[in-house]
Amino acid sequence: MNKRKLVVLAVAGMLAAAPLVAQAIEVYGDVRLSIDMSKNEQDPVTGGRDDSALSVNSNTSKLGFKGSEKLSDNLSVIWQYETEVELDNGDMTVKGRDTYGGLKGSWGLLKAGKLSNPMKSSSSKIDIFVNTRADHNVIVGYVNGVNTFDNRFDNTIWYSTPKFGGVKLDLSYTTDSAGSKEDALPGKLISPQKSVTSFSLNYDKGPFYVAVVTEARNDAKLKDDGQYEDVAATKLVGRWDFGQGTTVGFIYENAENAAGAEVAPMTLASASGQARSAFYLNAAHKVGNTTLKAAYSQADDLDNAAGTGATHYALGAFKSYSKNTELYVLYTATNNDANAKYGLKDMAGVEGNTISAFSFGLNKRFSSK
Questions:
Q1: Distance CA 157, CA 176 (A)
Q2: What pLDDT is attached to residue 351?
Q3: What is the pTM of this model?
Q4: For residue 349, which of 182, 190, 67, 142 has the smallest C-alpha distance?
Q5: d(CA 55, CA 290)
Q6: Are the C-beta atoms of residues 76 and 106 closer than 8 Å to each other?
Q7: Superfamily grouping for domain 22-367
Q8: Domain coordinates of the chain in residue numbers?
Q9: Is 287 helix (H, G, I), strand (E, B) or coil?
């Protein structure tokens, strides 16, 4: 190939890339692979299932694209497309994560699409074991093993105020949590209505972060009559950076049980709306390139449902080899009371039993920026 052709190809390549650069498109993702040895106390003979397993897990690995474009001095358009990637089996089917379009300016941020709501996002930022077997959502957001208040929803509108002295308000409203197939006329049904409202008041400045969060859902369905009933949760979240590599985080949560949680002492008539409280504590300390981590959480019994509580703990060491690459080892376990069935991240619990996992993992972040 002569030099003239090389120059032409080089110029063509630059021209093709120019629109991407102008629109500030970023390609990013996480590789979060682990080898796990997990165990529970279920009897493999009577239960028909094994009581231990060695597995390779993807731990919410993801691939995303995002960008922004300045429309005026006080208005920019932003967008993001993000999907989960199953590294353990090679699947790259669309498994939607936060995906949206929106506008941003000095007046705040407005976006719409498939979004985590403030109840989910407010505490995920302090989870030191995020997207591992020891993820804090073993208990936080879950009521007796059922994911009730740790969700991302279709059809969600989100507004964030600007920060004033570290204080910011986040508000989301999900117009129809049933999904996009039933959210528009003429297909939208008169009944049942499904919507979710969530907001958080956040203070994030210097070493201190604190948030008060609430969420109300009216899509907890009772199995016997097909009616829908409201359930709600409130949460207090905090984190303190003590400096010198030490941080401490906490969460207190009071959440109602959605119908269909299948708690043994409960009847269908009383299944929805019974509350349980829970707390979560964690600490991390960095020594050189290694961060030592520990977490403990506890869920109390549901109202009038004895034996529905559980405890969870985790210990781990994470070693950074660069800004975006780390290896880790951790051990985590959930101990269930007689009528509880909390599990681990991506692992269902066994009623009344302990479930545990030892993980050796790799976290690799990448970005085109």
A1: 11
A2: 86
A3: 0.85
A4: 142
A5: 25
A6: no
A7: Porin (2.40.160.10)
A8: 22-367
A9: strand
